[in-house]
Amino acid sequence: MDSTAAPLAAATPDFSFLGLFLQADPIVKGVMIVLVIASIACWTVVFEKIVRLARARSQAKAFNNQVQTGGSLDANEKGISGHIVQAGLEAWRDQDPTESRAERRDRIERAMRAALNLEVKRLQTGLPLLATSGSTAPFIGLFGTVWGIMNSFSSIAKSQDTSLAVVAPGIAEALFATAIGLVVAIPAVMAYNKLSGDVSRVQSSFVSAIGILGNRLARERNASRAAAE
């Protein structure tokens, strides 16, 4: 009785996560490894963006307060606001006696928006990885699923046995690959939508302040020219 129980226990497949991975076909293992690496990369991007966007929101709020209250702006300040102010002051220093106040304001605002767009592109770095992982991970997992089911049918053909003990391990490995693909894709899509919206809101906040600051710098330039004359 004991001698027959040991082989049966040894033949029982391991349906734990680690067991499903170790028992899987090399192709299915490769699919799982790719998906796990993609998941780690996505979560790295998510945490990095959470930190950077929190800092950017704080800078946008401070920048808006300074602009609306007419406070002094420091071009040497680190971060997005410092780059915007620096670009605006450089455009402000460029004198063209022939341009009107509206043209001067437009030129200053274009310089500041160009600096903002460069910073926004830096904030968006990594977001395409989330979008790509969210759209492709389910299909990569599905490839592992198809391959695992093919192995299950191959096992049935070789053993001439359609019992659940023969079919179950391959099917479980296949479904596990699909599950990993969904675990990667769902958070990636949700994070992409959330972070993209946060980037857009930060950009809009800076753009509204740039309009006020551009008018202020153009007015100051006109006042300085009038005083010089």
TrEMBL record:
Membrane topology field: Multi-pass membrane protein
UniProt keywords, alphabetically: Cell membrane, Membrane, Protein transport, Transmembrane, Transmembrane helix, Transport
GO cellular component, one term: plasma membrane
Subcellular location: Cell membrane; Membrane
Residue ranges constituting the MotA/TolQ/ExbB proton channel domain according to the UniProt record: 78-204
Domain of life: Bacteria
GO BP annotations, alphabetical order: protein import
Keyword Transmembrane helix belongs to the record: yes
Primary localization class, coarse: membrane
Cited InterPro entries: ExbB/TolQ_transport, MotA_ExbB_proton_chnl
Segments passing through the bilayer: 27-47, 127-150, 170-192
Pfam families: MotA_ExbB (PF01618)
PANTHER family found in the cross-reference section: BIOPOLYMER TRANSPORT PROTEIN EXBB (PTHR30625:SF16), PROTEIN TOLQ (PTHR30625)
Family from the record: Belongs to the exbB/tolQ family.
Protein name: MotA/TolQ/ExbB proton channel domain-containing protein
Annotated source species: Methylobacterium gnaphalii
